[in-house]
Specification:
CATH topology of chain A: Methane Monooxygenase Hydroxylase, Chain G, domain 1
Order of helices and strands of chain B: HHHHHHHHHHHHHHHHHH
Order of helices and strands of chain A: HHHHHHH
Number of domains of chain A: 1
Radius of gyration of chain B: 21 Å
Oligomer: heterodimer
Distance between the termini of chain A: 58 Å
Strand content of chain A: under 5%
Structural class of chain B: mainly alpha
Radius of gyration of chain A: 20 Å
CATH class of chain A: Mainly Alpha
CATH superfamily of chain A: Phosphate transport system protein phou homolog 2, domain 2
Largest interface: A-B, 20 and 21 residues
Number of helices of chain A: 7
Helix content of chain A: over 70%
Helix content of chain B: over 70%
Chain lengths: 226, 371
C-alpha cells in the first residue's frame, strides 16, 4: 500500500496526465481518420483494418477520464491551473467530435461499400484529404509544443485550404451544377465533404487554444490595436 | 523564482511557523504559571463540568474552524494547570466542531440540487460520525475516565513515568524565546493577573496565525502533488482511503482542509459517500498530530500535556473501533448523512438551520445551562 502511495506521489499530477491523455485521444482520432478514408476511398468493401467503433468508444472513455481528472485537480490544487484545465475540457470536446465525424465517414463507407468514384472532383478531394491528414500531424505537434506560430499558421490557412474547397464541392452538388455523378455518389460526396470540413474546423478550434485566451477559443485571433 | 529556491523558502517558513506555534504553547502554559496554580485551577473551574467542557469544545472550534487550534490551546492550558480529566471533554467537543468547515463548503453547491445532495451528504457523514462517537464514548469517559487512564499509561511510557520531569529537545529550543516574550509582555504591567492575560492573548494570536499560515504553506507543498491521490482508483478500498486521510491530514495538519477538499469531488460525483467515509475517519486520526507536537513544547506538566494530546488520538481510535466494529452502527453515519441530504434538497433552510443549531446555538445554550 505504501509503495502505491509513493508511486502516486512521484507520478505526474492529474492535469499533466489529462493533457497526455488528450494527445493520445488525438492520435486515436488520426488513426480513425486514416482508416475511415481508406475504407471509403480505396477499399471495395467495408472491411476494416482497425475496429473504428472500438476506437471511438476509447476516445469517449478518455473524454470522461480527462474531465474527471481536471475537476479533481482543480478541486484539490486550487485555481492556479484553472485556465489550463478549462482549455483542456474544451479541447477534448473538439477531439471527441472529430472521433464522431470519423465514425460518420465509416458509416458512409458501409452504406456505400464500393469505392467512392467522384469523377472530376477526385483531385480536389484527394488534396483535401491529404491536407486534413497533414493538419492532424501539425495540430498534434502545435499542441504538444505549445507552438504559437505553428498554431497561427493552421488557423490562417484553414478557410483557404480546406473550408472553402469543401464548400465548393457541396455547392456544386446542391445547386445541380454537377450532373455526371450517380445520386448515391453525389450524396456520399456531399456528406463526405461536409464531414471533412467539420473535422478540419475542430482541428482549427484546437489550434486556437494555443494562440487565443480561453474566452476566444474557436474564434479568430484578435488583431492587436497597436 | 526557481522551484528549488521556492521549496527551500517554504520549508524555512514552515520551520519558523512551527517554532512560533510551539512558542505560543509554551506561553499559554507560562501565563497560568504567572498567576499561580490555585488561581489557574479556579479559572479553569468553568470547564470542570464535563458537559460544559464538551460544548465549549464544540463552540470554540466551530468559531475558529480548526480543531488543531482548540486542542493545542487545551494542551497549553493543561501545561498551565488544567486537569487532564477537565481537558478531555473539550477535546471531544473540538472533534465535532471541526466538521463545520466542510459542511459550510458543501452549502456552496446549493444551487444545483443533485450536486448539493451528494456534497452535503459527503460533508455531514463526518459530523455524524463524530457526534455518534461522542454519544457512545462521552458517558463512558464521564463515569470511568478511560481515555485519561489509557492516555496517561501511554504518556508514561514516553516520559518514563508520571512523576519524572520530562525534558524534550523541542522544549530546550523553545524555552528561551518563551521566557523572553513573557518578560517583555509582563514588564508594562504590575498586576500578575493582567500580565497573565496579556501573555495569554498574545499567545493565542501567535498560535492562531502560526497554525493558519503553516497550514497554508503545507497545503501548497502537499496538495501541489496530491491530486493523484484523489483519483477514483486510489479510493477503491476503504483501507487505502483511510490511509490517505491519515497521511494527508498529518502532512497538512488540518482535517478541515483535507475533508473540505473532497466535498466538491463528491458533489461532482467523482467520489462516492462510501469512499469518503473511511477517508474522513483517517482525517480524524491525522489531525491529532498537532496536539502531540504542541505537547512537546509544554514548559511544565509535560506528562499531563502529552496525556491530553494522546487522549485526542485515543478518542478517535476508540471511536473508529467502536463504530466500525459493530456492523449495524457502521453504516449509521452514512444513512444519517443521506437522510439529512434528502431533507436539505427539499427544504433549503435545513442546511443553514443544521449548522446554526448543531454548531452554535445548542452548544451556546448548553454552556449557559451546564456552567
Amino acid at each position: 500500500m505504501w509503495r502505491e502511495l509513493i508511486n502516486i506521489w512521484k507520478s505526474h499530477n492529474l492535469l499533466e496526465q489529462a493533457w497526455n491523455e488528450s494527445f493520445e485521444m488525438l492520435e486515436i482520432d488520426r488513426r480513425m481518420y486514416l482508416e475511415a478514408v481508406r475504407v471509403l476511398r480505396e477499399a471495395d468493401d467495408a472491411a476494416l483494418n482497425e475496429d473504428i467503433r472500438q476506437l471511438d468508444k476509447k476516445v469517449n472513455k478518455y473524454e470522461r477520464d480527462v474531465r474527471r481528472k481536471v475537476m479533481t485537480h482543480c478541486a484539490v490544487e486550487g485555481a492556479h491551473d484553472l485556465t489550463s484545465g478549462m482549455i483542456l475540457i474544451s479541447l477534448v470536446i473538439d477531439i471527441e467530435r472529430v472521433g464522431d465525424y470519423c465514425k460518420n465517414i465509416l458509416d458512409l463507407a458501409q452504406m456505400h461499400p464500393k469505392t467512392l468514384k467522384v469523377s472530376h472532383y477526385d483531385k480536389a478531394l484527394t488534396l483535401i484529404e491529404n491536407e486534413v491528414k497533414e493538419r492532424f500531424n501539425r495540430t498534434i505537434e502545435a499542441l504538444k509544443n505549445q507552438d504559437v506560430e505553428a498554431a497561427r499558421s493552421l488557423m490562417r490557412t484553414y478557410k483557404q485550404e480546406v473550408g472553402r474547397e469543401c464548400d465548393k464541392i457541396v455547392e456544386d452538388l446542391v445547386s445541380g451544377t454537377c450532373v455526371d455523378l450517380s445520386s448515391a455518389d453525389a450524396t456520399t460526396l456531399a456528406l463526405y465533404a461536409r464531414y471533412l470540413k467539420r473535422i478540419s474546423a475542430h482541428l482549427n478550434n484546437m489550434a486556437t487554444s494555443v494562440v487565443n485566451p480561453f474566452h476566444r477559443l474557436g474564434f479568430k485571433e484578435k488583431e492587436s490595436k497597436n | 523564482m526557481n522551484s528549488t529556491l521556492r521549496r527551500v523558502l517554504v520549508i524555512l517558513g514552515v520551520v519558523a511557523l512551527l517554532y512560533f506555534f510551539l512558542v505560543s504553547i509554551g506561553m499559554v502554559g507560562a501565563s497560568f504559571k504567572l498567576v499561580g496554580k490555585s488561581l489557574a485551577q479556579e479559572i479553569f473551574g468553568f470547564a470542570s463540568q464535563p458537559l460544559t467542557g464538551l460544548f465549549i469544545g464544540i463552540f470554540a472550534t466551530s468559531l475558529v474552524q480548526s480543531s488543531s487550534t482548540t486542542t493545542s490551546i487545551v494542551v497549553g492550558l493543561v501545561a498551565g494547570g488544567m486537569s487532564v480529566e477537565t481537558a478531555i471533554p473539550i477535546i471531544m467537543g473540538a472533534n465535532i466542531g471541526t466538521s463545520v468547515t466542510n459542511t459550510l463548503v458543501s452549502v456552496g453547491h446549493i444551487g444545483r440540487t443533485n450536486e448539493f445532495k451528494r456534497a452535503f451528504a459527503a460533508s455531514t457523514v463526518h459530523d455524524f460520525f463524530n457526534l455518534i462517537a461522542v454519544l457512545l464514548l462521552f458517558p463512558l469517559q464521564y463515569f470511568t475516565n478511560f481515555l485519561g487512564k489509557i492516555s496517561q499509561f501511554i504518556a508514561g511510557i514516553f516520559t518514563s513515568g508520571a512523576d519524572i520531569h520530562f525534558t524534550s529537545p523541542v522544549k530546550v529550543v523553545v524555552k528561551p524565546m518563551v521566557g523572553m516574550l513573557v518578560k517583555l509582555l509582563s514588564s508594562p504591567f504590575d498586576s500578575k493577573g493582567v500580565q497573565a492575560i496579556a501573555v495569554l492573548v498574545v499567545a493565542g494570536i501567535i498560535l492562531f496565525l502560526a497554525l493558519k499560515y503553516m497550514t497554508v504553506l503545507l497545503r501548497g507543498v502537499v496538495m501541489q502533488n496530491a491530486s493523484g491521490f484523489f483519483e477514483r482508483t486510489v479510493f477503491r478500498t476503504p483501507h487505502l482511503a483511510f490511509a490517505m486521510g491519515v497521511f494527508l491530514t498529518a502532512a497538512v495538519q488540518s482535517s478541515s482542509i483535507t475533508t473540505s477538499v473532497v466535498v466538491p469531488l463528491a458533489g461532482a460525483g467523482i467520489l462516492t459517500l462510501g469512499q469518503i467515509y473511511p477517508y474522513t475517519l483517517g482525517a480524524n486520526i491525522g489531525t491529532t498530530i498537532t496536539a502531540i507536537l504542541a505537547a512537546l513544547a509544554a514548559p511544565e506538566n509535560a506528562f499531563a500535556a502529552l496525556s491530553v494530546a494522546l487522549a485526542h488520538l485515543n478518542f478517535n481510535v476508540c471511536g473508529i473501533i467502536v463504530i466500525t466494529a459493530i456492523p449495524p452502527i457502521r453504516t449509521v453515519p452514512m444513512k444519517l448523512a443521506e437522510f439529512m441530504a434528502n431533507q436539505a434538497v427539499v427544504r433549503k433552510w435545513v442546511p443553514f438551520a443544521y449548522i446554526v443549531v448543531v454548531f452554535f446555538l445548542v452548544p451556546l445554550i448548553l454552556i449557559y445551562v451546564t456552567r
